[in-house]
Amino acid sequence: MKISARTNIYGVIGYPIEHSLSPMIHNAAIEALGIDAVYVAFHVKPGMLKDAVYGMKAIGVKGFNVTMPFKTEIVSYLDQLDEETAFVEAVNTVVDVDGCLVGYTTDGLGALEVLKSTVGNLAGLNIVVIGAGGAARALVYHLSKIPCDITILNRSVEKARFIVEKLRSNSNAKLSYRSLSEDDQKAVIPKAHIIVNATPVGMTTPGCPISPSLVNSSHIVFDMIYWPPETQLLKEARLRGATIVNGLPMLVYQAAYSFKLWFGIFPPLDVMFRVVEEEFSRYGER
Question: What contacts 111, CB < 8 A, 6 or more positions away?
Fold first, then answer.
């Protein structure tokens, strides 16, 4: 990759950021398409986000991704949000449009692509989404456009209710919500075709977000977590014969939609998947 004074800069901000795979994914696509750009990771300490965003704008960074812990906080420092992002209240992609910083979320599209590539047609299916945070909201926003049944399970029923009430009037899906109590899990999960974990349980905290005994061989279980590659939920689901999918393809798909927002073209997915899979195979050899 040749870098000059004309090279456009893109990147990702977060804390910590050292282990981000985003530079590897995006630079592979940039190089494959011969674009004069570079994508780098920016280590931003808590309390410095406002300065970082204004600094990005000042030095002409064309666009950047946002990861933990700044996806919600950054909303305050942007000039504009698209409709989906305003609902989700979390941003993972920022585009500089003639000095105006516009926030988007591509997490929902990324998750939807995973489900479509796994199942095909989602119409008529019963889908359970565990969690009511930004990732869950983003996915449910897109699923609500499909004639399917969606149930949100969350510890805080109020947060789940908020999503349903916000989307119900313009939804093609049947939307409902319940708590994560044992009774509610037993009432909902056995009927599901697809179970999606949109919580950090299994990554930042150990354990399963639901009772694994309710999972069976007819289920498709999608965990948005990509590290570890097999969470306890996925392990338990696999042992029970379910079809399992981790968050790795979502990572690539959401990156691809960010790329399209910046460059106006969809990147080569085969290139993106290859570099990620090669990196994960190296982890497995250690």
Answer: 135, 138, 139, 142, 196, 198, 222, 224, 250, 253, 254
CA gap 15, 184 in Å, rounded: 36
Which of 71, 166, 191, 260 is an active site residue? 71
Whether the bond into 249 is cis, omega within 30 of 0: no
Q: For 64-104, how does the pLDDT look when each residue is reduced to its tens digit (9 = 90+)?
A: 999 999 999 999 999 999 999 999 999 999 999 999 999 99
The count of residues in the chain is 286
Q: Which two tokens stand for residue 270?
A: 């085969």
| Token couple for 108 | 């929902």
- H helices present in 39-123, as ranges: 49-59, 83-88, 107-119
Residue 260 among the catalytic residues: no
The per-residue pLDDT for range 204-245, each reduced to its tens digit, is: 788 999 999 999 999 999 999 998 999 999 999 999 999 999
Q: In this predicted model, which residue has the larger pLDDT, 19 or 259?
A: 259
Q: β-pairing, 93-97 with 100-104?
A: antiparallel
